[in-house]
Amino acid sequence: MEDNFQSAYQEEEDRLNHALVEIDATLEKLRSTPVYTGHDYTEQVLEDSREQKRKDLAKLRQEPYFGRLDFQGKDEEERKALYIGKIGADREQVSDRPLVIDWRAPVASLFYSFTGGTELASYEAPEGLIEGLVYLKRNVVIRKQILERVADTYNRDSDGPAVSDEFLVYRLGENKDNRLRDIVSTIQEEQDKIIRAAKNTALVIQGVAGSGKTTVALHRLAFLLYQYKDQVSAERMIIFAPNRMFLDYISDVLPELGVGNIMQSTFPDWAAQVLEITLPEQDAAETMNRWFETSGSMPVITEETPGRFKGSTVLMEIIESSIKLLEGGAVPEDDFIPWEGAVLKRSVILHWHNEEYAPYPPGKRKERVMARIHRWIEMELKKSPSAAALKERKKKGAQREKAYSAKWPKYDPLNIYKQIFRAVKVPADWPEGPPVLIPAAVLKETARELKKGILREEDLPPLLYIHYLLNGNEGKDRFDHIVIDEAQDFSPFQIAVLDLYVKGHSFTILGDLSQGIHAYKGVHAWEEMQSLFAPEHTAYHALTRSYRSTMEIIEFANIILSAGVNSPLLAVPVFRSGNPVRLISYADHLTAAAGEDPRSRAVAAALAALSGREYRTVAVLTRSLREAQELHAVLVQEHADIHLIDGSMTSYQGGLSVLPVYLSKGLEFDAAILADADQDHYGPAPWDAKLMYVGCTRALHELWLLHNGKLPAYVQATEDVTINGWPEA
């Protein structure tokens, strides 16, 4: 076995050296080619291509590839060693195979989909289905041109196991820093199917915590740009993330994959840009305070909760009816008379509005009708009998044209939204009372806030929809693809509006219902979103394997989910064992000094115990922001570099952090400490259990739960996954 390993290592080291020589030679040739700076378009295109190759090869020479697949097509005489990397590279000399095959190429899919066995394997190529035999599947780790690791996960010529998770476990065991990393070398079969799914599909992905769904979605963008390069562009793609800090956290993945210029935003930021409005920063904080910072039970959530109702398609129907009312009464009642003796009949204006310009949305229809009226005025002015009359008519005509335009409805989304909720006076031809489908409590609260100038995140989809109905959306303003992360926190209304801004229903919608801690605004079942699309335009995938945490952490978190939420969406852990979950009563195991908070003392002791590990990221998770602030004020005295994450940050710094558990969703840490995992902080409701589940599943290698001795019923101290008490010194 040792001889086989040495032979494989030597073989791969020799191949790496040859590859580096060829890469350097090609790069030197490109760098020695003078850069074209002229104005000839063809030469500019060629220069752009050369510059891209220079950048790709410069990156490639550090880590040329990560995998090898020996494959023999059914109609081929010999097997070929195919090397797979993040960036493809051709050889200088004509060859039957590239120097490096791009991981997105059709044949590279075998590296991810092949799971062992002696039967024929196959992959879809442009020319059709290609079948053949896989002889070797090998993972290699190359860093800064040095071969660090060689691991065969399949070898037809050996007596070893068909496929091993040894390499995957090795990569998962690495410690985290402050950025999400690509998984291109460890993509699993079920993830690869999602990455390579057809473009014009609203793909809904239910992924358990740690299933890699965010990373899969980012790799899917890179694949779509490769596979559909003539149909899509990076500039017309967008990623919607839950907050700006999360955008920073994922910001390195796409550049690592050689992809740039993809828009990344939160939904509120993008909506405010489209609507050309400024949102108050305190809205998000106020919402979090309402739902997460109050003591006692969480407010009851029903279909009449403002966020749930305003996120429903019922409000879409109300808006559509309101816009039709405006359209029906848009043209003023009187004829247009710019000056005495000139009359433009209302019937003519109605004909223009209702027939000639009928295909246009109301806002653009009004613009065209008013432009037509202006041209009519100019034609009439030419009939003036004298220069003095022309001057007088021109002045009077301009005044009356302006006055006539003011009689039309005010096609402003916010004003119409206020009219719907009766926060301002409504047009005379509207029904006197408010729409009967709006719940009284929602109507009252929304009207009160709109009168004060308060806009909530839940008001943005309705405003966007009104904007769309008034102005339409030209093709140039539509996205080629939209990724929505943490989609369980989006409403059906948000998805329906975004569908108006994307071509061909091209979505990647990903989330986890078990982490639906924003149930006051998000969906409770994926059917709420899938029902928006025709069956042929949507698909559903479930990712059940968790690659983030150890078996001990996943099994413990599953108990919380099963007992506290009665959820069937349990994670299947990868075989990676670690330290037991520690469930510790700080009241019993530590004696605080006089006046000292026992919880702060326990957290400090836990951090001291973890300091001996080589962890890059450690998080202390509290139930509320107030408690995070209080705990940070104490801990910073001993840990000057500890960060407080309060929702206002735009970047995640890594290292040691204190934050409320509801702000940790989407992040992951080498170790996590839940500072207050007791009944005083986590009640019996499923929502509380989901919050604790989110906290537990942030940890990769080690999880500690501190409590005051009173545990929620769904936290069960099973012997094989927990230890009560402090670790031995």
UniProtKB/TrEMBL annotation:
Keyword annotations from UniProtKB, A to Z: ATP-binding, Coiled coil, Helicase, Hydrolase, Nucleotide-binding
UniProt xrefs under PROSITE patterns: UVRD_HELICASE_ATP_BIND
ATP-binding is among the record's keywords: yes
Molecular function terms from GO: 3'-5' DNA helicase activity; ATP binding; DNA binding; hydrolase activity
Coiled-coil positions: 9-63
A single BP term in Gene Ontology: recombinational repair
Signal peptide, first to last residue: none
Domain UvrD-like helicase ATP-binding as annotated: residue spans: 186-550
Cited InterPro entries: DNA_helicase_UvrD/REP, P-loop_NTPase, UvrD-like_ATP-bd, UvrD-like_helicase_C
Amino acids binding ATP: G207, V208, A209, G210, S211, G212, K213, T214
Name of one Pfam family that matches: UvrD_C_2
Cellular component GO terms held in the UniProt record: cytosol
Superkingdom of the organism of origin: Bacteria
Protein's name in the database: DNA helicase UvrD
Provenance organism: Paenibacillus donghaensis
Top-level taxonomy: Bacteria, Bacillati, Bacillota, Bacilli, Bacillales
